[in-house]
Amino acid sequence: MMPVFDFIEGSTPLLISMPHCGTAIPAEYARGMTDVAQQVADTDWHLERLFDGRLPDVNIGTAGGGSCAPEMLAAVETLLVEQKAYTYVINQRFKGGYITRAYGNPQAGIHSLQLELSQRSYMEEQLPFHYLPDLAAQVQPLLRQLVQSLIAWAQREAR
Predict the structure, then answer these.
(1) Contacts of 147 (CB under 8 A, 6+ apart)
(2) CA nearest to 83, candidates 152, 18, 144
(3) 56 touches 120 (CB < 8 A)
(4) Nearest Cα to 73, choosing from 122, 113, 116?
């Protein structure tokens, strides 16, 4: 059985949760799956069929502003406004999943936001859904800046 999660302790007050990627299927389950099911055509991969229009590249959710301090969201939004390579929205299709809504509690000092990245920014959008390293490398600097901005914000708040 694969572990439910990996915890890597660091030195900053930031937790990054990546609850599902849809590709790791334990062998004991895969044996009982059809060939089609083993292609892991996850429902999340078909959002364009569920909503009108094209999904923005970066989707930020804060439970309508309820899961984090406005200053934390402002730090993220500032970076997104300054960059021009990727489209983004805040609190639209993805307003915050279960983790964001259940654990984000700014009054208790627990701030949470959801970041959904469109497939077209790092992978093929059609079977076999290959990861595209060259394409992913283009979005990685923005993701790195977002994480660094969140760390800096959290460190300022911890003082």
Answers:
(1) 14, 16
(2) 144
(3) no
(4) 113
What pLDDT digit, counting tens, does each position of 80-109 carry? 999 999 999 999 988 888 888 988 999 998
Instruction: Supply the pLDDT for residue 11.
Output: 76
Q: Is 50 exceeded by the pLDDT of residue 43? A: no
Does domain 27-158 fall under CATH 3.40.630.40? My reply is yes
Per domain, the residue ranges of the chain are 27-158
How many Cβ atoms from other residues are within 10 Å of residue 151's Cβ? 15
Residues in the chain: 159
* Torsion sign over Cα 149, 152, 156, 157: positive
Q: How confident is the model at residue 125 (pLDDT cuts 50, 70, 90)?
A: confident
Question: CA–CA separation, 63 vs 104, rounded Å?
Answer: 9
Closest by CA position to 149, among listed 116, 110, 113, 123:
113
- Could you report how far apart the first and last alpha carbons of the chain are, in Å? 41
Average pLDDT for the chain: 83
